[in-house]
Amino acid sequence: MAGEERFEETVAGGTIAARLFAGDGPVARIHVLHGAVGVPRDFYAPFAQWLGSLPGEACLIYGYRGLGDPPERLRRSTITLGDWGVVDQDHMLGWAASNFPRAELRVIGHSLGGFMTMFHADAGRIHTLTAVCSGPAWWRRTPRAHRHKAWLFWYVLGPLANRLRGYSDGRINGIGADLPIAAFEQWKRWCTNPDLHRPDWGGVLPEPDLSAFTGRLRLIAAADDWIIAPDVVRDLARFYPAAREVTFRSFTPAEAGAPALGHFGLFRRRASRAWPAIAGLAVSPPRFDGPGAAG
Helix, strand, or coil here: 132? Predict the structure, then answer.
């Protein structure tokens, strides 16, 4: 079982709460897990705990600033996806790089976590970026059978809920976590544009250094993910033109050992057959028994 350290980082006037999982021996590889939009930190805890229990491995997970704030604070919040993807991700990547200077630096990015690395100061130090269900999620590239859901969310239900509540309701956005309206609006802008966040470069986002990341880019998709479908995940490679190697793999639910995967399922216990591939390690998957094993 991995040992655990909990700590907090103060960033831009807010707090990032983090968990580091690692064993007792020297750390050969530090994996920084950047989460998806609005997904709570502890959703990734089973995966991170397993990864940190392996000899020589450490895994860092954390929650974005303001995530899970009460409604009254969300209504006042001006936090955007750029704040999470540029500032928070960059800070935690830098924390890992400075605290484990001799370890190989790896990033596992889920959705939002996989398409912001070009903005990070330590991008050039990353050995491997594994982007899971991540890519330029233009709503018109949603599989035809589900495209109406994307249109309805971005243009009807999402904006309506924002006006009624003053924040993005997690029950409407489908991710279970409430978001500030500013985060929703930027999320919508990126997902209704074929070039993702490119229109924001040099404006509300800094100008990225597309030559900085020269490591290995590993693209992993879920075959039944209609939010960011496998062909969209594959297209993420154009945002990392200097990557020295690009690989792609799409998991079916059967390959992962789960009845379904969707956009979030690869990090659930029931899909743990896929975890060694996500970690990029030639190890056996974990076995979960007892209550919660199917979670």
Answer: strand
